[in-house]
Each structure stands twice: as structure tokens, then as C-alpha cells.
Specification:
Layout lengths: L5 H10 L3 E5 L3 H9 L4 E4 L3 H4 L11 H14 L4 E5 L9 H14 L4 E5 L5 H9 L4 E6 L5 H4 L8 H14 L3 E5 L3 H10 L4 E4 L7 E4 L1 H5 L16 H18 L12
Parallel strand pairs: 1-2, 1-8, 2-3, 3-4, 4-5, 5-6, 6-7, 7-8
Helix pairs in contact: 2-4, 4-5, 5-6, 6-8, 8-9
The structure holds 3-methyl-2-oxobutanoic acid and sodium ion.
């Protein structure tokens, strides 16, 4: 199958095909997700937390995002791949935003960028779109503004959130991600927009869903938000495998006859 394109992704809304999206940060995981037939993969700046071990998404750099987007891009045959613009690469004016986003598109096999912001980022969204760079807007809880918002909280300012989503669409965003907003409000925004909404902690009336891969797989260290559903418990699986290996090495059971060369 060929790559999912941005227009195809948009058309899933009208055809009622729910969109599944997950994050990936490297080749082997991206290949697995793509092989499983997911519509979209996000190289999220959540990488800052789940891969790099920082306690916010703020420290990850553009060069680091590009390095990981290259790995994901090399793995993917089918999914639409979207890359987060890390803080503060979309906040330095339209010209700098185009410079930064175009590096992502030129240096990786990824097709679109995502940036946090709605109404107050409309000029940047419009600038990127006019440069031929598709943009997914991210409204609601915006983790890059954690210090302003005072933590990771459900966002309830309906008037502002509706305005953000509509402004992003009018500026040319091909999709709007809704993070941590009440389900009825996410449903209302979804019905008001022509472009697909992708929800995380935003109920099941969005046009699609996204989760952080490590949360879904049970690989996250520490706090897992309430909106996550864990479909596997790989931390335990991995720990069990490593303990079994350690015990086999200690007892001389590994390597056994099948794992060694007799001559
Ligand atoms: O960086 C990320 O993983 C995200 C998701 C929370 C959607 O933006
Ligand atoms: Na993000």
C-alpha cells in the first residue's frame, strides 16, 4: 500500500473512517506500528519525556527531533508521518517557523508538522501552509505552556477552545488535535470543523485518537494519565526477560548447545 497523503487523511472525516494515530521515535517501533496498519504516526516532542527522561517537553531540540524523525521516516511505508515542532521553533515569527519546519520536511521522509497553538498561531500556520508544509494544530492542553498553565490540567474554556480550533482551520491547518478537554466540548468542536479532529483525553466523538506509544504499551515510568488505556504491560515483560537472562548467565544455562559454535 502507498503512503497516506494529507488529502486522504482529511477525507477520512467525510467517509467516517476513524483515524488511529500513535507516537513513535525510532525505526523499530515505527516499523511495527506501520505494519499494524495505523493511519498516522506522530514523532511527538513527548520524546523529551519518554525517551530523554526530562520532566517536561521543553528541552528537546529541533536537531534531536529531526534525528528521530529520520529514523521513523525510514521505517514507514504506509502511515502519514507528522513531526512536532519543538519549543520554541514555531514562536519566533513566520519566517523562522518556515525555516525550522522546512528542515523537518527536507531532512526526513515525514510529510507534515504539528504545532501547539490556535488563534495566536494563525499567522504561523498560514505561513507554513503557503510554503507547502501541511500543519496539524494542537489546542487544549498545550504541554509546551505547562508553566503558564500551572500543570497538566483539563482545559474547559469553551469559547477560547472553539475559537482556537476554528482559527487554526481558517489558517489552513489540515487537522486539529484536541488534548484534555471535556468530551462534549470536543464533540462540539468536531462537528463545527471541516477538518478531522484527533483527540487525546477528549472523548470518543473526535474523528481520530492519539496516544503516546509508551503509555499504550505499559512502558511509561511513573505517572500515567487517566485518559490512557494500557493495551500491554511491556515493562513487566521486559523486566522478566532480563531477570531470566541474568539467571541463565549466572547458572551457566546461557549460552546452551544451540547458541554456541562447536568448531
Ligand atoms: O508529543 C506528543 O506525544 C503529543 C501527543 C500528546 C499528542 O503531542
Ligand atoms: Na507534543
Amino acid at each position: 500500500a502507498s503512503r497516506v497523503t494529507v488529502p486522504e487523511f482529511v477525507s477520512f472525516k467525510a467517509s467516517g473512517r476513524k483515524i488511529s494515530m500513535l507516537t513513535a521515535y525510532d525505526y523499530s517501533m515505527a516499523a511495527l506500528l506501520d505494519g499494524a496498519g495505523i493511519e498516522a504516526i506522530l514523532v511527538g516532542d513527548s520524546m523529551s519525556m519518554v525517551v530523554q527522561g526530562h520532566d517536561t517537553t521543553l528541552p528537546v531540540t529541533l536537531d534531536q527531533m529531526i534525528y528521530h524523525a529520520e529514523m521513523v521516516g525510514r521505517a514507514v511505508q504506509h502511515a502519514l508521518v507528522i513531526v512536532d515542532m519543538p519549543f520554541p521553533t514555531n514562536l519566533l515569527g513566520v519566517h523562522r517557523a518556515i525555516e525550522n519546519a522546512s528542515r523537518i520536511i527536507k531532512e526526513t521522509r515525514c510529510q507534515a508538522v504539528k504545532l501547539e497553538g490556535g488563534a495566536e498561531q494563525a499567522d504561523v500556520i498560514a505561513g507554513l501552509v503557503s510554503a507547502g508544509i501541511p500543519v496539524m494544530a494542537h489546542v487544549g492542553l498545550r504541554p509546551q505552556s505547562v508553566h503558564t498553565m500551572g500543570g497538566y490540567k483539563v482545559q474547559r474554556d469553551a469559547e477560547r477552545l472553539i475559537h482556537d480550533a476554528l482559527s487554526a482551520q481558517e489558517a489552513g491547518a489540515f487537522s486539529v488535535l484536541l488534548e484534555c478537554i471535556p468530551a462534549p466540548l470536543a464533540a462540539e468542536i468536531t462537528s463545527k470543523l471541516r477538518v478531522p479532529t484527533i483527540g487525546i483525553g477528549a472523548g470518543n466523538q473526535c474523528d481520530g485518537q492519539v496516544l503516546v506509544l509508551h503509555d499504550l504499551l505499559g512502558l511509561t515510568h511513573g505517572y500515567v494519565p487517566r485518559f490512557v488505556k494500557q493495551y500491554a504491560h511491556l515493562q513487566q515483560t521486559i523486566a522478566d526477560a532480563v531477570v531470566a537472562y541474568r539467571e541463565d548467565v549466572r547458572s551457566g544455562q546461557f549460552p546452551g548447545p544451540e547458541q554456541q559454535f562447536d568448531k
